[in-house]
Amino acid sequence: MYSEKVLDHFNNPRNVGELEHASGVGMVGNAKCGDIMKMYIQVENNIITDVRFKTFGCGAAIATSSMATEMVKGKTLEEALELTNKAVMDALDGLPPAKVHCSVLAEEAIRAAIEDYIKNQKGD
User: Fold this and answer.
1) Which residues are catalytic?
2) Mind listing the domains of the chain with CATH numbers?
């Protein structure tokens, strides 16, 4: 069963959508289950000032995306890079074992967006 927090973030996801002029964008997916997450971050002075997501997937994928955005907004890039899938799961009061991969995708999507931002800053 899903916790009340998972159900809340699934039914009322936070930070859904795209950032038109995002500083960094990360997209990750799991071919096995079909979940795809796309994270957009806005960075100013090394702080994630805004973050949005678009997720195609199950309820747990949407809930973990939503929670991850809440957890990194207002954080420095370094703090956001410390986000773990376990922290996302703990914040949601747990996930069923078959849905742990969703929290891993959320962690990976945040990292991918930050890596994209860093790459853009270097002009690669």
Assistant:
1) 33, 102
2) 4-118 (3.90.1010.10)
